[in-house]
Each structure stands twice: as structure tokens, then as C-alpha cells.
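Sorry to interrupt, but I need a hand with the structure work. Leave the record below and I will have a look:
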Amino acid sequence: MVNVLIVGVGGQGSLLASRILGTLYLNEGLDVKVSEVHGMSQRGGSVVTYVRAGEEIASPIIPVGEADVIIAFEQLEALRWIHYLKKDGAVIYSKQEIAPMPVITGAAKYPEDIYGKIAKYPVRQVAIEADKLALEAGNVKAANVVLMGAASKILGGDEKLWQEALVANVPAKFLDLNKKAFEFGRNSD
């Protein structure tokens, strides 16, 4: 069984990412359950998606401490959800900072040294400039697919099946751009 938690802020494309991952696992012949939780996503709030795949999946919800991988589209979201990751799991996240409402209103400060805070956990940490790589690919909105490319190195799976999942979920007019974004993420260090 594989448990993947996808977290971000409304409008970052976490739902597309979960569809790509779900399609990949279905094409591998696995039972897949996806559960999407929208927390004020239209107003920049957290969006959380659980993706579980295996021989037989009873529930779509990933228990705390059971995620194999967390894919976070913003670094504070990576820190906010790190407790869901199992020991020796992996967190892949964009270095992008999006200030939540309490920071915007001045009621709180954006946390410093998120990389250092995550480093205290016994997990693999992959932080990439997803927005910059997406811009290089042609559109900053493809940062979600950049992160999926980076995650593909850790999650494994047949490259052909990843490409088929992209084709099945990305509109044709954006496919070439997203294929490029995926490769940039896959080849990132």
C-alpha cells in the first residue's frame, strides 16, 4: 500500500495532481481511493488530498503518521502536515511562500527556517523551486506538475504510465507545457 498526502493552498492545482496520481495507480492495476478536503480553498486556505493505492483499500483517509510521501505546494503547508508522515517517509515541497490570512493581517509571522524545522523529523526532505522551474517550462501555474515530476523519482512507477496519466488529466492545449514541467521536476536535484 502507498499513502500520499497532497497539500497546498487553494488554486495551486492539488486536485489535478491527485487525479494524475490516482490515474497512475489505476493504470498499474491497483485499487485507489482519493479523498479531497477543501478548507476555504477559494480564499487561499489549505487544500488536502489523500491518495491511497494498494491491493484493496477500505478507506480513503490516511491516518496520522502513516503517509509514505507528502507533496506540498507551499513550504508552510509541508511543515503544517509533517506529522502525517511516517518515519523515513519523504516530504517533497515547493520553496514558495504564500502568507496565510493571519500573516497578511499582521496577527502572526510567517515561520522562519522551515527547512531546519522539517530537518528535525526523521524523514527525507526535498525542497525545490517549483514555481521557477514551472516558469521555465512556460507557466508558473505548472508548479504542481513540477512537484509531481519530483515525486515520481521517489514514488517510482513506469515512466510511460506517468506520461499516460498526464495525457489523461491535462487538457490537450496545455499538455506539452506540463510534460516539460514534469521533466523539469523529475530532473531537479
Remarks:
- The chain has one domain: 2-186.
- Helices lie at 14-27, 75-81, 101-104, 114-118, 130-137, 143-155, 159-169, 175-186.
- The CA atoms of residues 102 and 108 lie 5 Å apart.
- The mean pLDDT is 92.
